[in-house]
Amino acid sequence: MNALISFAALVSYLFFLVRFAWQGLQVLRASGYAAFFPVFLRRVPASVYISTILDILFFRRIFSSSKVLWMGSWIFHISLFFVTLRHMRYFFPSLPACLIFLQPVGLAAGYLLPLSLFYLMVLRTVQKKDRYTSSYNYIISGMLLLISSTGVAMRAFFRPDVLSVKQFSLGILSLGPRMLPDSSLFLLHFFLFLLLLPYLPTHIIAAPFVNLEANRRIKELRYVIHER
Amino acid sequence: MKDKKESFTRNLTPLQLMELDACTQCGECLRHCPVQEVTGRPSISTPEKIRVFREFIKATGGLKARFLNPKVIDRKILEDFTKAVFECTTCGACGQKCAVGIFTQRLWPYLRKEMFDRGLVDYEILTNMPEAIKKTGNPYNFPVEERFKPWFPEQVKVAEKSEIAYYAGCSGVYGAKPMVRGDVLVLDAIGDPFTMLTEDEEVCCGFPLFISGQHDMLEDLTKRLVEAYKAKGTKVLVCSCPCCVNIMSRDWPAFYGKELPFRIRHMTQHVSAALKQRKIMVKKELKERIIYHDPCYLSRGVGVIEEPREVLKAIPGIELLEFDRHGSESRCCGAGGAVRKVFNENAIAIGRLAIDEAVAKKADKLILSCPACYGKVNEAMQDHDKKIPIVDVMELFAQYVERVEP
After folding, report:
1. Which of the given ranges, A184-188, A192-196, B228-232, has the highest pLDDT on average?
2. Average pLDDT rounded to a whole number, residues A174-191
3. Which CATH number goes with the domain that contains A10?
4. A121 within domain boundaries
5. Which of A70, A211, B22, B113 could be a cystine partner for A206, CB 3.0 to 4.6 Å?
6. Would you tell me which residues 107-126 of chain A have a C-beta closer than 8 angstroms to some C-beta of chain B?
7. CB contact, 8 Å: B98 with chain A?
8. Is B256 an interface residue toward A (CB < 8 Å)?
């Protein structure tokens, strides 16, 4: 059983990596490889980078469009980010100081994550008019809600042995399967994560580049036809 | 038809591929789409089109397709997608409000091109276009000899050669004559000599071909026009059609293969500069509330937002009103996308939204600055319960402008 779960985890990690790499390869192939980099390496004013960083950090474009959606989206993404950082403790034999420092933030984010997901799902259901319903989004959100809820349950009510969880995680990475932690909730949490991983949306990688280009385009719009 | 198994990415730039991938399917863009506003059909919305096109890419070039067999995509799905991508007015409002900033105004023509290349487009109005342009120089197949005659003011003299040239554009000369007549009268009032190509030489700028995904003739049309203006000694090419101005400034350099030998200017830019240089002035008052509609390809497309307002405000007494959505966030008038006659019901309904808002704001006149908008919004007012005089910005300005004698 231990070996089987470890094998499933490796397959899931592999699918995740291959899928993201394939997506990158598609873009490179479309550009004839060499032509891709100049597109993004051309001179971009510092203000465009700053705008992009602010857009990514604070979801400014969603904010300008819908405050209600922004609140849920931003809290969800920022929580997911800190929860992911908190989970790094299971993958480092000794935790870097910066990650130790962020552990309490990750803990708070762990509670906010399912709440924000629930809020977003309700929002999508309630505001059906003019709303696009993506079954993919529902499935991903639903799985994340389950994963985060089981995470909260493990933290608040049914705590597994954290050391055995860490040993199990490190075992998978070092290709040396270790004993499964004695927690069915952990097993469910981990199994759902393995199911989700290969289906994670690749827009995580593409969106920042597209956003950078959008900010450059907005800045340059004035000079399409006007003199500088 | 080209090989059905050919990749769906062949017409896309790397950036456009990333844009397709970057769509988070949040659905926010639906609230800004004029087609959604009048149809309420998310099945033809931006995120759905992007999702379906991603499926096409996966089916022919995805991991499974590479290592197993490429999927044969059901023809019905391809046809439905084609219809959806052509039902769009390509106004680009979805991209303007996109959470990640996808440049949809530019993406749609390339998705359309893909469907054209696969032989899935059978709208005669589009498929007949290249032949019509070859024969008559315009996409509507109107007679060449009627290009300038019915509207060109007799008293206006056109120079044989000049640094300033005026391109009237097919939609204006055949469908919005008061607009191009106004342009020429204002150019005459400015007093600088200007030249024009002859009715045989002034052919389509290529925009309707570009927007509908038929790109084969574009290089030829561009080179023909650019060389003709170059031969006339042109340094500034003035045009009032937003679509022409858009393709001239954004795409002509690429089709021409190098930088253009002249600058492109929208008519309102030219007039605004003439006002600042005190070449023209307006004394006569117009005590009216007017509302100006920003054409998508002028405001979102090339960033000409202030100049039309400057020109209108130069008329004393005018009170300039704004639509709720204006400037770079303006709402399409319904005429965009090159297939307004096919999806006429949508176009009329969208046009009426502009009329209704203008009437609700108690405007005396609705001011447009695009020949496509001019034709469609006028058509939308027929049999509509709300009425408002529709005037082109130069049609109005020509009635008030006076030359400042040096």
Report:
1. B228-232
2. 86
3. 1.20.950
4. yes
5. B22
6. 124
7. yes
8. no
pLDDT at position B145 over 90? yes
Residue B288 to residue B79: CA distance in whole angstroms: 49
Enumerate the H helices of B128-241 as residue ranges.
129-136, 170-175, 177-190, 207-212, 218-231
Mutate to test the interface with B, among A124, A199, A204, A225 (most CBs of B within 10 A): A225
pLDDT tens per residue, range B300-329: 999 999 999 999 999 999 999 999 999 999
Tell whether ipTM is more than 0.95.
no
Residues forming beta bridges with residue B367, ordered by sequence position: B292, B391
The answer to whether residue A194 sits within a structural domain is: yes
Structurally, chain A folds into a number of domains equal to 1
Can you give the residue range of the structural domain that contains A93?
2-20+58-212
Inform me whether the C-beta atom of residue A34 falls under 8 Å from chain B C-beta atoms.
no
Binary contact (B249, A73; C-beta < 8 A): no
> Mind telling me how many Å the CA of B67 is from chain A's nearest CA?
12
Q: How far apart are CA A27 and CA A35, in angstroms?
A: 10
| Domains delineated in chain B | 14-122 (1.10.1060.10), 126-273 (3.40.50.1860), 280-403 (3.40.50.11810)
Q: Are B108 and B82 in contact (CB under 8 A)?
A: no
* pLDDT category of residue B1 using cuts at 50, 70 and 90: very low
- Please name which of B364, B356, B354, B281 lies closest in space to residue B318, comparing C-alpha atoms: B364
Q: For residue B18, give every residue at least 6 positions away whose Cβ sits within 8 Å of its Cβ, in sequence order, or none.
A: A27, A206, A209, A210
Within a domain: A203: yes
* A61 vs B27, B62, B101: nearest CB: B101
The size of chain B, in residues, is 406
Confidence of residue B399 (pLDDT cuts 50, 70, 90): very high
Q: Give the model's pLDDT for residue A189.
A: 95
